[in-house]
Amino acid sequence: MIPERALWVRMPRFIGDALMIHQALAPLRAAGRPLVAWGPAPVVDLFEGSGTYAATVADAGRAGTWAMAGLLGRHRAAGVINLPRSTRGLLAGFLARTPLRVGWSEAGGRLLATQALPFKGRGDHQADRYRDLLGRAFPDLPAADSAPFRPREEAFVQAAALQRELGLEGPFVVLGLGSAAGVKRLGTPLWIDLITWLRAQRIAHVLLGGTFFEDLAQAEALRAAFPGIPDLCGKVPLPVSAALVSRAAVVVGNDSALAHLTAACHTPLVAVFGPTRPELTAPRGPQVTLLRNESLACLGCLLLQCPVPGHPCMEALDPALLRRAVAASLSLAGAP
């Protein structure tokens, strides 16, 4: 049931951004404010039943702005928190005469929002921008750290069944192959080196990724190199991935939704960054280890196609550096 007078949180289509927004809302949760997660179906499905939102509302396709406004009006929303860059949520709140509308001032947002700040022109982390905007809208809220994210119980049941089926009963490492941008993926030789080391240490591991063609192609290459390797790429829904991640000893990956999910679950993470800038969007937390090929001057180029032969930021990382980081994270997690 959707409560009246709740704060409706507009979620973006990017999972990583949605998880950073979820973590930024910790002070509102601590204060007992009822929140409704509202947005694209694959995103809100992750939060459904997690106990962190009073309700979740998935978009019916690409809902029109008037339909969105009608939804807010029918449920007498107390406010719209619109942290994605799109102003559709703000416009819907404006049309519905929602009393509180929080968002960014660009693209007409200053005219639509009751509380706004600029997003552009800042060089700080995206999560800090969320914090500042929410602090402006709710100045009396005390600081609060985000609790570890846990998906709905059904996802844990499915994850436990998969662990038994794949022989992942003890501590295991999740190898996160996926990324929406191919330029952010680790090279297959690096994965082969790491898997060889994990097997020598008798540490269980599983491949995890999405349905992107490059995810599936890399998983196929690793299955050829290691016949019988547990592979869940493209095979489990996001809530089950969250449950697996929360039960893992360590997750290894790149700048991806899975990395942000790992940080939100407070699971030790080793993430390799190359073309993207960790100071702007990296997962945060004391259990997060970020690696980069620091010998390169082109790090953080933000290009979608690498002009350097061999794509060295993601292909030429020292494999020993990756192994050492994973070993340290396993020690942190108490795994052998």
TrEMBL record:
Signal peptide: none
Alphabetized CDD domains for the sequence: GT9_LPS_heptosyltransferase (cd03789)
Pfam families referenced in this protein's UniProt entry, alphabetically: Glyco_transf_9
Entry keywords, A to Z: Glycosyltransferase, Transferase
Family matches, as Gene3D superfamilies: Glycogen Phosphorylase B
Source organism superkingdom: Bacteria
Record-linked PANTHER family: ADP-HEPTOSE--LPS HEPTOSYLTRANSFERASE 2, TETRAACYLDISACCHARIDE 4'-KINASE-RELATED
Stated name of the protein: ADP-heptose--LPS heptosyltransferase
